[in-house]
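thread: overnight batch results

M.L. [08:02]
morning all. the overnight job finished for the chain we discussed friday. pasting input first so we're all looking at the same thing
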Amino acid sequence: MRNLLTLLLLMYSFFVFGNDRTKFSFNAGWKLHVGDIAGAEKPTFDDGEWKGVTLPYAWNEDEAFAKPIHEHSTNIVWYRKSFVLPKGTVTDKVFLELEGIRHGGEFYLNGKFIGRHENGVMGVGLDLSDALLPDQENILAIRIDNSWSYREKETNSTYQWNDKNFNANYGGIPKNVWIHFTAPVYQTLPLYSNLKTTGVYVYAKNIQIDKKTIDLFVESEVKNETNEPKSVNFVVELRDMDNQVVKTFAKDYIVQPGSTHVLQASVFVKDVNFWSWGYGYLYTVTSKLVIDERVVDAVDTKTGFRKTAFKEGMVYLNDKVLMMKGYAQRTSNEWPAIGLSVAPWLSDYSNRLMVESNANLVRWMHVTPWKQDVESCDRVGLMQMLPAGDAERDVTGRRWEQRTELMRDAIIYYRNSPSVLFYECGNESISEEHMAEMIAIRDQFDLHGGRAIGSREMLDSKIAEYGGEMLYINKSDRHPMIATEYMRDEGLRKYWDEHTYPYHKNGEGPLYKGNDASDYNRNQDSHAVEAVKRWWEYWNVRPGTGKRVSSGGVNIIFSDSNTHYRGKENYRRSGEVDAMRIPKDAFYAHQVMWNGWVETDPTGLHIIGHWNYGPEVKKDILVVAAGEKVELFVNGVSKGFGERSYNFLFTFPNVAFEPGEITAKSYTKDGMLLAEKSLETTGAPYRVKLKYLHGENGLYADGNDMVMVDVEVVDQEGRRCPTALNMIDFNIDGPIEWKGGIAQGPNNYILSESLPVEGGVNRVLLRTRYGKKGKVQVKASSNGLMADSVAFEVSPIKTMGDYFVKASALNLPLNLSRGAAPTGSTIVRTRETLPIQKVTAGANAESGMKSYDSNELSDWVNDGKLNTAWIEYTLAKKSDIDEIDLKLNNFRSRSYPIQIFVDDKLVYEGNTPTTLGYCTISFPKTSGRKVKVQLAGSSYIASENKHEEIGGKKLDDGVQRDDMNAKGTLSIIEIDIHKKIK
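M.L. [08:03]
and the structure it wrote out:
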């Protein structure tokens, strides 16, 4: 009822009274032609045979997941739209806002060239005012080229991020288009490209979390395009999430004719609800221009307030340490047969799923995300690492300038989004000079936003505000180190384990660039186990474990993606959910491990897999738990306690299948029950079960709103049959467009109205048709099973010509599920790092400090002789010592037989394990001041260093030096010497 009332009020003001500033969706009424065609920009051109489309619409959307990324179609296409200016609307100034096109576009209004936009990523604004015909039909024509090799017209330069590995090519206009009407005195749009304007900037200073107070500042760039000065009362209204006015404040200005001026007002605000992880509390800031006691312009800005700090190797949110946990998601964030152009509520659905897996950060990969995803993260409470655009290396010349320009545009467009915590300057390290340029851009346009700017790597940078490698672990006591994309393993949701049809053996798959699939191609069991193993190494050096810590990392990727792939399927299957966002077991594994700001909620528990097998099957039962002990029961009979590994994984070997129920119970160290989960053996498939879902704000005939329909195969008791693979036939009746889903099989079943369930479940999408309201019925049947159907209504939208208010984007709910930030400390200090005073060594002692200098690009190394392969550290004072962290060169592949002495007493002897970075060596507590690490024999290759995915490049494995054949070489990149804290 509230949503309907809001919509009616909007329609009433927009369509009855008008307003000096109005904004409409410009998504409807477009015509599309694929292929270049002479004269299509001319108003007299006949487009009567062109295809009618409603935006957002990529002309090759049907190829999403049907074709591999490098085969995505490219062409020159034309979009055309005819329109007349709306009656009763102030039209002194008219601006077009395109949230993004792919890749380069040329714009014509009534045959006149009005602009060009070429970066293929960011939003662009166009001033239509001078070329409009006020009382006649206007023709807008856009020529778009989505070639992979597109070159900037003025410079002939390609764009670094127009790449066939990661940037799925959904061509044309795959994002929203809006039209803005204003009076000649107006607040500008945050669209620097072409318009050169910066819009509204909202920020807070003097943030007091405990007192719940801020000093609120609102700045707005205002233009006076009249011939006389204007006395402007700049009025700001702050409203809470319930639309209640919290504060109103104002300041008077004189704005000179023909000038652009930034107006500012500020106020003290108390009782602030702070935005946080999983607590997407947003305010509305309405900035108004009042002239002669009349509001001539009003702009709403959705934003939230939070406090950040990036120091001591850690990220602080609202004064609390927060370890980064999340996903490196492809920016396309696509769905089958649709690409990125999903309905707003589906963006929320997907991004909120990340939060429900207990992720707190999404790192969009390589290119700036769509505005719809950025605003969605604000609502669901998911922090963002927001890139500009690049590929895998620093560049110079025009291609570097393109990156700085894109960063500038992205900062201006998104600087009011509280979820944006990081600006990413590169997917590889950049020079200090380039880093300084990016910092200057941030400081010019977002000095007060509380956002760190950095790049991948930047391990030795003196000015970057965060860093972190791609596939290994870094620690820091300076700027935070966040792994930007770890765990590249892949596996279909369909593949449970080696005992369940189709019996996918772990590691089975085709060769990729001459390498077998054994290191990455998994089933659900092993994919979930690998997720635990990889995260454990980050958790092991989390905040609280010493002076230098890891600030966490993001797993690549969240949802299966139509980007670079290595397996039999033509898309990337590394997701914790599949392409339709149905969870895999690794989703629940992360849910257990990540539930907490730093320390893990001990009640997390998940049994990997299902309990439907043949009578002869014996298998390892795997449980992910955050408790200290886990006990397994089969039909009520205890099978004992699991073997614990990687802190979170509990294994019960060789359990014989018995129909019935298995139950896992987790306990504290003292035996107190923490959690209990069960799996049941289900009966034979009996019927099909449907469930539909659409946005909580309604379902609208805007040509972009969508319905998601889940289909399950269940037994007679209504339980999902986890091994069912039945083919489902769908039948649709009503004003809606079938977009379907995905499954393993011919053409990945893209757009097919028959497709199988996998693991007993699948999902399809349907899209509304513009202006077509009414009842829709979806039926689903399968041979031998009872059928099912669901029905729903598509609501009309209020239109005026092809202008409309996009109701599906209004009143989307805020996710407040995690509550506000915790009040107590979020870290538990488990170790004290002991400071080193001096160092001696068997060779190269002058570089000994490089082994503890917080620079992981440097190391101490001896001269290759076994008798000089030792280094001794003298601590600042005598202390108890019982744990050492070591990062040794070739840490992925080489094992070192070492001895550790404390004041000449041997406390440890053994071979170091291969790791993603750091190995932790524990020994009995020993008091002393000198710690000696000595190579006891030749090092050896303990694990093959697998090839990189792309180009045959070796994975990073330490410093840039060949130690592989130097048997007497000891190389220490970093060492931390600790005293455990009880």
